[in-house]
Design brief:
It is a single chain. The longest helix is centred in the C-terminal third of the chain and has 37 residues. This protein is mostly beta strands. A hairpin with a 3-residue loop joins strand 55 and strand 56.
């Protein structure tokens, strides 16, 4: 709609301003203003705000009934770019309309793309930096940098504009001498927007990856932590490569690096860097790195793990394998870390055997077992052994020691108790390295190894049965144990049927004090308590010696006598012998003896030292000497102190060192008579008259050095106190600088000091004197006289008036009051002391505690008072304090304390046990506790239901007693099967120790009945019965008749229940008739169990192991018959019968049954073979039936011929190329899978000829989880010494195929025989492809060259192996057509062990006009031409817009008569 004003005029209806697209070259910007909808044409005027010039108003143009007009002005570019505001206004008589401010339209900015190109010739490197596609045109200020510093050359730079696109390109170029390639510098082209690109000679000449080989030192070189060891890093790399070592924290380590050689025919060097450290420093680094830094800062590292850390502490054990050589030790270690370890064996004397085993454990393996044969030189009784596993000088793990495995053999002879009516069984045990047992008189015994103890010694047993007649005749039987060419024996006779009397032998060798002089007569005494008529004799080093035996004396109330025998020798003769033995021979008893070593052996020469203890010197005790000896033998030694003048002090210390203790320290105070400057001292340790060890001498420890004696004297008058300080007897004369202090601060008075000298003695005395007012005595001040050597003496008025010592009585609360933690309990401290005394309580940390203090009374006739302090706490708070103190503070700061230990510390966690004593009342429980702390504890008994019996026992344990036993009788109300019991020992509300619970001691009884294994020669069977309950009794029944039995023993179990045992002996005939024997247990209730031969047999025979297999495929093929085999394994196979069935019909024809065979584990086996014809085997099922004589049911196993066999799949695999290239035999593998049944035959052939069986090895069968498929493999060895050519065949025979199944392989060596490669060079889109094929071996190198210069390529595939053993490989090079200059030649260079070959390709010269520019024009001409073209384009665009605006305005006015026209926006002109 058009608005018309009065008078026929209309004001403008719309107005907007526009700007040109770009800046003018004359420094001005053109703006336009368009208005429409007004009339008449002549009435309109334009006006502008802002600094404008060159205003031009264009004539108005009519459109419909209104007009449109345009105004144009120019503004300065500086004002425009400063974003100053410009508006235009259109006015006529009808009104005016103003535009919005004109928007500043900046030309859109586009960042450049930067590309850096390089062309490398023989002499020059041309670098071209292309800054491409940026807007607006502006100099990019391209900078060149060399190694991040400004480039010193002169770049050539020019700017280009894409035709008609206002997009610009800038090109900058530099030239570099090609010889600078070797310095691996970086050249950077950087635009002003910090957009850059970098090129270095590394890109022109890529650095080859180094070959790094690191060798860490062997453990053998690092066994001693002080040794220098070396790790070596060998690197094959290009020149200018740096090799160094870095620690775990990346700190560079000092090393020695050498370039050992240039590789001839290669551009690489061999560089070796060695890192040398002592072994202890080496292992401080968990890891080290060999770091290789190449030109272009390429860094490669190889990490060496020095020590793997064990996940779990390794365990090392030493043992003797039971089988094989008896002198072999086995060291077993588990949980070891990976890496190298050593295994060493040592003796108890510290000797380490030189045989060291080094093992490099792979990752994942943590166990190790090594063996060692003990040299004959160390196969001695005094030696024991251990093994050590070492990972580094400071990290090793050791086993414990074996026993003395080469020690004397031992024998033990026992008689099995019987009723006296049956044959007597004797059992002998022998212990040693490899003991054997023989009997005298000669008897046949059964022997078996019982066990090998943890100490490595073997224990064997042998048993004989003596006919009763011979036994009763008193014949003596001797068991002899032989080992290491030594024999020991024991004898036994009917005398052992009576209760034996074990002689008590007390052998006392003479004391060292009696043997100090070799000529003295000394005596050994053997006191024996034994049976009458006992003989006592002496043996020295195995030789009898006459002794003096006194008449025996009867021991009152006993059947024994006391016999005393003495052996007297000279001391010098006595020590010549190793041991002395007192032998005792009782009637009806073997000879017994007691042996003592006369002198214990010296393992290592003892070391004796004499010192003055520093602690004593610091205390002021200068005359104490300490004699320290180590590596002493066990037994008695004496310690004596001597002077340098030969005087020996009479004080001699005798010490009897127990076995295992080798150190001794004794102290001696030098008498004042010998404290002289000319005396020095030594100490002597003596084992015998001729065996002693001495220390070196001390120095002259009593050199003259005299400090003063200080004495402080006081004289107290009524008005004055005179203090006199006397410094007496000091040398040399020197002013002592006496200082007086009052309460540790300088005294303000004026002392009087004088010095005196003893006439002619050069000994000096100094006297200092002060005076004090007597009234100051009441302040209890301290006065100190102090010499310059920090020697002082103090006096106070407290010394003038000494205080009485307080009487302190402390009572801590009883445990009964503290059983509950919340209860209030009190401790009381009563003190009788002078007035003005403070009583308080102090905690463990010296913190004063709140207490209630009362002064209860004055003691009449005394100057003291009775003061009571009460400390009240909760029981739980009370026990938080380990100790509290009652502190009494008197005047003069005299402090007295009485410490109360609230809870005695627990040194070791107490152990509490509850048990039933076997004797006495059966319902009594006993609570036993050990390792208790001293002080008061309570003992309480509880049930498993939580009920606590009210009877509580309180016991105050004295210091030094740590055990406690209390008893408790269970009330009848709780004697029930559902109850168990425990006891509790309590020290405080929170400190309690409990026992475990008993069992249900009033529970049901139980019975165990078993058969004792019978000797095959015995005519009787022994049955053993055990009964468990509260107080069980055993009764035996044979059928329904009660049977006499032998009661063996009654024991109390840990759960409080009693276990009794009994056995009966059944005649063998009666036992085999199947008579049932019953063991009945009578207690609160009655339980029983029965047993018979068949019940035992059925138990032992269920089930027998039964195996059934059919005929072998190869056997049937060769023999034509089908043997079916049934194998039965049981304890006694003679109690089983084997029956064959064919198609469920019993057959006994053609059955072959072998004799039973015994096995080491005590079992037996028997094999039965049924020979069938091939026709029967093909047609019928076969079963093997096994039945025990005491079993009702038989056990069956069925078998039949497989009628649906599966044919095997056969595949042959060649060895890898690396196997052929290494210097060892290689292997052909034949894999046979998926066959059924398992019976199969496999062998190998070459060119139709069967190879010998020694050439191949067939694996065991492996079965699928379904059991219906089997697999195996066969490995054929190919000797490295000769290469066989031809066809290898893996030949398989199986039931599934009438003919052999054969898999073959040819040309197995083709991949390692030198074959020249064929090379083809092909061109694809944007890439070149070099194809190399028909060559061997696989190692090959492909290099791309452009005009003879190596260029990086896109991708090279891995060599692919063909069926004929030859290889092929493909290499691709990415080449853009724009980068391939005409005439340039690309070369594919192939390097192989057979030689080198090349293929070339070049491109014809093509001129592409659109990508070249005229380099002859100057930069200024190009820029001026571009500017003129741009200005013409802008003028054309403005005129075109004006005409477009006019046409649009006229059209809009016509169309939109119903609404005002939409105002134009500046974006409509973009």
């Amino acid at each position: 709609m058009v608005t018309v004003s009065s008078g026929g005029q209309t004001k403008p209806s719309s107005i907007f301003a526009v700007s040109s697209c770009g800046a003018s070259s004359d420094g001005f910007q053109t703006l336009g203003c368009v208005t429409s909808g007004f009339s008449p044409a002549e009435s309109l005027t334009f006006s502008w705000t802002g600094d404008v010039t060159g205003k031009v108003d264009y004539p108005a143009m009519k459109s419909s009934d209104a007009y449109t007009a345009v105004s144009q002005v120019q503004v300065k570019n500086s004002d425009w770019e400063a974003k100053k505001s410009f508006t235009c206004k259109a006015t006529n008589q009808a009104g005016s309309l103003e535009s919005k401010p004109i928007q500043f339209l900046r030309e859109p900015a586009v960042d450049p793309n930067i590309t850096l190109l390089a062309k490398v010739d023989d002499n020059t490197i041309q670098l071209l930096c292309l800054v491409d596609g940026f807007v607006p045109k502006k100099h990019q200020e391209v900078k060149w940098l060399k190694n991040k510093s400004p480039f010193s050359g002169s770049p050539v730079t020019r700017t280009l504009e894409a035709k008609g696109k206002r997009i610009f390109t800038q090109i900058s170029e530099i030239h570099i001498d090609a010889q600078q390639l070797n310095d691996y510098s970086e050249y950077t082209c950087e635009a002003s927007q910090n957009i850059s690109s970098t090129w270095s000679s590394c890109k022109a000449r890529p650095v080859l990856r180094p070959l790094i080989n690191v060798k860490k030192p062997r453990l053998a070189a690092a066994k001693d932590g002080l040794e220098q060891i070396t790790a070596t890093c060998s690197v094959e790399a290009e020149p200018n490569t740096k090799v160094s070592w870095a620690s775990t924290e990346n700190r560079e380590m000092e090393s020695d690096t050498k370039m050992t050689s240039d590789n001839s025919g290669s551009k690489t060097q061999l560089i070796t860097s060695t890192l040398t450290l002592n072994a202890l420093d080496w292992e401080k680094n968990l890891k080290v790195k060999c770091r290789v830094i190449q030109p272009c800062n390429n860094i490669h590292e190889e990490t060496v793990i020095i020590l793997d850390v064990p996940v779990k502490t390794p365990t090392v054990e030493i043992r003797r394998p039971l089988e094989g050589d008896n002198a072999v030790l086995e060291c077993s270690a588990r949980d070891l870390p990976s890496g190298e370890v050593s295994v060493t064996f040592l003796t108890n004397t510290g000797h380490q055997f030189p045989e060291v085993t080094y093992v490099d454990l792979p990752r994942g393996q943590s166990t190790l077992i090594t063996r060692f044969t003990i040299p004959t030189s160390h196969q001695k009784k005094e030696h024991s052994f251990k093994c050590k596993v070492q990972q580094s000088p400071s990290r090793d793990w050791q086993s414990g020691f074996t026993g003395n495995i080469f020690g004397e053999p031992s024998v033990e002879l026992l008689m099995v108790p019987n009723t006296g009516k049956t044959d007597q069984t004797l059992v002998c045990y022998g212990t040693g390295l490899n003991p054997t047992i023989t009997w005298k008189p000669t008897s046949v015994g059964t022997a078996k190894t019982v066990m090998q103890a943890a100490d490595g010694r073997v224990k064997v047993s042998s048993q004989i049965i003596v006919r009763q007649l011979k036994w009763n005749e008193g014949e003596e039987y001797t068991c002899q144990v032989t080992d290491l060419r030594k024999s020991v024996q024991k004898s036994i006779s009917v005398c052992t049927a009576s209760e034996p009397i074990t002689p008590l032998i007390n052998l006392r060798k003479p004391r060292l004090a009696a043997a100090k002089q070799g000529s003295e007569q000394i005596t050994a005494t053997c006191s024996v308590e034994a049976a009458p008529n006992t003989k006592v004799s002496w043996v020295l080093n195995g030789n009898g010696k006459e002794g003096n035996t006194k008449p025996p004396v009867d021991k009152p109330g006993s059947k024994t006598q006391i016999i005393t025998s003495t052996l007297t020798l000279k001391a010098s003769e006595w020590e010549k012998h190793q041991n002395v033995q007192c032998r005792v021979k009782q009637p009806c008893s073997s000879e017994q003896q007691e042996t003592v070593n006369i002198l214990e052996p010296v393992v290592k020469t003892p070391t004796v030292e004499i010192i003055r203890p520093l602690a004593d010197v610091l205390k002021g005790d200068y005359a104490v000497l300490e004699c320290s000896a180590r590596d002493l033998p066990s037994g008695e030694v004496s310690v004596t102190i001597l002077t340098n003048t030969g005087h020996q002090f009479p004080e001699v210390t005798y010490v009897d060192l127990p076995r295992g203790q080798s150190t001794l320290i004794t102290r001696f105070t030098i008498p004042t008579t010998h404290r002289k400057k000319e005396h020095s001292f030594t100490c002597k340790v003596q084992q015998s008259p001729s065996k002693l060890w001495q220390s070196t001498s001390t120095g002259y420890i009593f050199e003259p050095a005299v400090d003063p004696n200080i004495t402080l004297l006081a004289k107290v008058d009524d008005n004055t106190v005179k203090l006199l300080c006397l410094l007496d007897g000091f040398v040399p004369k020197k002013h002592q600088e006496v200082k007086w202090l009052k309460n540790k601060s300088p005294f303000s008075g004026s002392p009087v000091t004088r010095t005196l000298e003893a006439a002619g003695k050069r000994i000096f005395t100094q006297i200092s004197e002060i005076h004090i007012d007597a009234q100051q005595l009441n302040d209890y001040s301290e006065y100190t006289c102090q010499a310059s050597q920090d020697i002082s003496s103090t006096w106070s008025s407290c010394k003038a008036r000494p205080l009485l010592r307080p009487l302190i009585n402390v009572k801590k609360p009883r445990l009964a009051a503290a059983k509950q933690g919340s209860e209030q309990i009190s401790a009381t401290c009563s003190v009788e002391v002078e007035p003005n005394t403070k009583v308080s309580w102090v905690s463990t940390d010296n913190r004063e505690m709140t207490s209630d203090i009362k002064m209860t009374s004055d003691n009449r006739g005394s100057k003291t008072q009775l003061t009571t302090s009460t400390l009240t706490l909760k029981a739980s708070d009370w026990e938080k304090n380990l100790k509290v103190k009652c502190r009494v503070l008197q005047p003069c700061n005299n402090i007295h304390e009485e410490t109360v230990i609230i809870l005695e510390p627990v040194v070791k966690i107490p152990t509490v046990e509850i048990r039933r004593p076997l004797e006495g009342d059966s319902a009594v429980l006993e609570c036993s506790a050990r390792d208790l702390p001293s002080g008061e504890v309570s003992v309480t008994f509880l049930t498993n239901t939580g009920h606590q019996f009210p009877e509580v026992t309180y016991v105050d344990l004295p210091r030094g007693q740590s055990t406690l036993i209390t008893r408790f009788t269970i009330p009848t109300t709780h004697r029930r099967k559902e109850y168990s019991f425990k006891c509790k020992v309590q020290q405080s509300p929170s400190r309690v120790w409990q026992s475990t619970s008993t069992g249900n001691i009033f529970g049901e009884s139980s019975v165990e009945l078993s058969v004792v294994p019978r000797n095959p020669d015995s005519e009787a069977q022994t049955l053993q019965c055990y009964g468990t309950g509260f107080n069980p009794k055993i009764t035996w029944l044979a059928g329904s008749t009660e049977k006499n039995a032998v009661a063996q023993e009654t024991t109390m179990q840990a759960d409080g229940r009693v276990k009794v045992s009994s056995y009966v002996t059944v005649p063998l005939d009666e036992w085999r008739e199947g008579v049932v024997y019953t063991c009945k247990i009578n207690d609160f209730s009655t339980v029983w169990k029965s047993i018979s031969d068949c019940k035992v047999g059925e138990h032992l025979a269920q089930p027998p192991q039964q195996y059934l297999w059919g005929p072998s495929f190869t056997v049937m093929k060769s023999d034509g018959r089908a043997p079916v085999t049934c194998l039965v394994i049981a304890h006694k196979v003679k109690d089983f019968t084997i029956t064959w069935r064919v198609e469920n019909r019993v057959t006994s024809q053609d059955v072959i049954q072998e004799f039973p065979r015994n096995h080491n584990n005590g079992s037996q086996s028997v094999q039965s073979v049924l020979m069938l014809s091939e026709q029967l085997w093909d047609k019928y099922d076969v079963s093997c039936e096994v039945k025990h004589r005491c079993m009702k049911k038989a056990q069956y196993v069925n078998i039949s011929k497989i009628r649906d066999p599966k044919r095997p799949t056969v595949q042959v695999f060649k060895p890898s190329d690396s196997d052929f290239s290494d210097s060892h035999d290689s292997t052909l593998l034949c894999l046979i899978t998926g066959f059924y049944p398992a019976d199969i035959s496999v062998h190998w052939g070459l060119n139709g000829r069967k190879l010998p069986a020694s050439r191949w090895n067939n694996s065991p069968l492996g079965s699928h989880s379904s059991g219906r498929e089997f697999s195996m493999h066969s490995a054929l060895t190919l000797p490295e010494s000769e290469r066989e050519h031809g066809t290898f065949s893996c030949i398989v025979e199986h039931q599934s195929s009438p003919n052999p199944i054969i898999s073959t392989v040819d040309s197995i060596h083709a991949s390692v025989i030198n074959s020249v490669p064929a090379v083809e060079l092909m061109q694809a889109r944007d890439e070149l492809v070099c194809l190399v094929y028909d060559y061997s071996p696989s190692v090959i190198n492909i290099t791309w060259l452009l005009d003879g210069v190596k260029v990086p390529h896109k991708h090279t595939t891995r060599p692919a192996k063909g069926p004929d053993g030859k290889f092929s490989v493909k290499s691709q090079l990415h080449v853009l057509a724009s980068e391939w200059a005409p005439g340039s030649k690309y070369t594919c260079l192939v390097q192989h062990v057979t030689g080198s070959s090349t293929q070339n390709i070049s491109k014809e010269e093509i001129i592409e006009q659109n990508i070249y520019y005229n380099e002859n024009l100057s930069d200024a001409i190009i820029e001026d031409t571009a500017e003129e073209t741009w200005n013409m384009a802008c003028a054309f665009i403005v005129l075109f817009l004006l005409s477009l605006i006019y046409g649009c305005s006229v059209t809009l006015v016509k169309v939109n008569t119903a609404r005002p026209a939409r105002p134009f926006h500046s974006r409509d002109f973009k």
